[in-house]
Amino acid sequence: MKKEVTPFLKWAGGKRWLIQQYPELFPTEFNTYFEPFLGSGVVFFHIQPEFAVLNDTNKDLIDSYKAIRSRWRKVYTLLSEHHKNHCKNYYYDIRSTSYRSLEERAAKMIYLNRTCFNGIYRVNKKGEFNVPIGSKTQVLLDTDDFQKISKILKGIKLLNTDFEKVINLSREHDFVFVDPPYTVRHNSNGFVKYNEVLFSWEDQERLAQCLIKAKNRGVKILMTNAAHPSIRQLYEPNGFNIKAVSRYSSISANKKSRSNYQELLIFCNL
Predict the structure, then answer these.
(1) Dihedral, 202, 204, 205, 207 alpha carbons, nearest 10
(2) Are 157 and 233 a contacting pair, CB within 8 Å?
(3) Which terminus, N or C, of the chain has the lesser number of Cβ atoms within 10 Å?
């Protein structure tokens, strides 16, 4: 049995609920694991595959993984300093400071992620992180095991590129887990913007075509997406299995909009 590892980041749309409620959807045998939208890597850390290609368009996020993999002790030391000095003024000082070294940038991101409002990652048009301070004060967590995470990441390919390039690397008997930023608001026609770059409807169509090709290559695929007729229409006619599931969202800043909603699980070749 592999030792359970808690991801070191909190990320919008985390998939812990998925691995807890639908473990049967995750294949136990495959060659290489691919995750083109990494985020906090909940599924990756649950599976802990020997061979994997992990990707995200967020360079700060991927650099944090690289720093934990190669310099986890230094990152932990820097986080200890942030923990000791944390207060409102210190938070905004760190938020406005630019760092050059990989470990300093990683420690900054993890510190801000753990102490900002609701663990949200948001940047302005200049690419500057602009989330205000939150209520949490713990920078070092009891669940932290950077040494173990570093070991899991050894030999894993970490990329910062477009999702299509990553999925196109997959071959027969590989497993691709796909969790894109949702174009449509759950159960409605509105739009959601998790970052400064909107994952457009054209991106959803491009993703579907990419996954159809992967399916035809014999790749095992599991995807989560918004429960919306337009999403179904991209996959149902192309032989994908679709399961609608209900879950609770606590991401919203408005308590009234935190409620149960549906998501789609889309899969094939499992």
Answers:
(1) 120
(2) no
(3) N
CATH of the domain at 142: 1.10.1020.10
Look at residues 98, 121, 150 and tell me which one is the last residue of a structural domain.
150
Looking at the fold, whether 25 and 115 belong to one and the same domain comes out as: no
Q: Is the distance from CB of 113 to CB of 10 less than 8 angstroms?
A: yes
Q: Which residues of the chain have pLDDT under 50?
A: 185-196, 251-253, 257
Q: Long-range contacts of range 235-243, CB-CB < 8 Å, 24 or more positions apart? A: 235/208, 235/211, 235/266, 238/208, 238/212, 239/215, 239/268, 240/211, 240/215, 240/266, 240/267, 240/268, 241/266, 241/267, 241/268, 242/266, 243/267
Calculate ∠ Cα 68-22-225, nearest 5°: 75
Number of domains in the chain: 2
128 and 165 within one domain: no
pLDDT in tens, 69-101: 999 999 999 999 999 999 999 999 999 999 999
Q: Which domain holds residue 234?
A: 16-57+161-268
Candidates 30, 18, 56; CA nearest to 172 is: 30
pLDDT of residue 259: 56
Give me the residue label for tokens 């992620």.
113
Q: Are 185 and 263 in contact (CB under 8 A)?
A: no
Choose one of 150, 171, 202: the last residue of a domain. Answer: 150
- Residue-level length of the chain: 270
- Token code pair at residue 246: 């209900």
Rounded to whole angstroms, how far apart are CA atoms 252 and 186?
Answer: 12
pLDDT at 191: 42
The CA–CA distances, whole Å, from 22 to 46, 84, 219 equal: 13, 40, 20
What is residue 190's predicted lDDT score, i.e. its pLDDT? 45
